[in-house]
Amino acid sequence: xxxxxxxxxxxxxxxxxxxxxxxxSHLNTTWSEAKDSDLVMVGSILExxxxxxxxIIAGCGKLHENIPSSFPNAKILAVRGPLTAKALKLxxxxxxxxxxxxxxxxxxYQDKKYNLGLVPHWTDTELEHNPIFLKYNPKIIRVxxxxxKVIQEIGQCRKIVSSSLHGIIIADAFGIERRIEISPKVLAxxxxxxxxxxxxxxxxxxxxxLQIGIAQYADENIIIExxxxxxxxxxxxxxxxx
Length: 242
Fold this sequence. Notes:
242 residues; alpha/beta; five-stranded mixed sheet; globular
């Protein structure tokens, strides 16, 4: 299966696509340009697709709310959240869940080693130097590391503070308390980085409001429900590929 994901900067969230497909749909994948791909899955990449895209859209989202998008020829199985669904004017039964919510199963249960983990967004040069968190001797988790290593390290923490959206999503998958921080560069360059749209989109998908700087647990029942829906969804991908 030819899949597209963003490779402009090494980032574990974008690299989840082939790992999740291989794990849950038992398919081999190769990377391709967006226009030639059979499937797109993880990341804020819908703006990368041509209007006549005819592949499978399987859980990704928009980066910018106000840029018109429509993919009448695509098979849309899932999007990241309700704001992406609304922007695409989707109707009918479309799953709204980020596939990263089952990425914890790529590594399995992790014993706790760290009281606090910091997961800076790839643009964020401030989070890991914040004295509020440094006093707790946190584990610094690099989104540019091997994706399986990143997932393991998040799972080994009792609490996560992250300016990476997928840092929060993986924490939710493990049921870990987490605190959202936003990269200053994302806030300073909303036209380039999308601002808070993807955060609102994901938070609404799990029945939460975006709250920055507050430690929270995601609702366990909602996360489990989304995870079960994603297992079924990966079976659909496997069936569509045959």
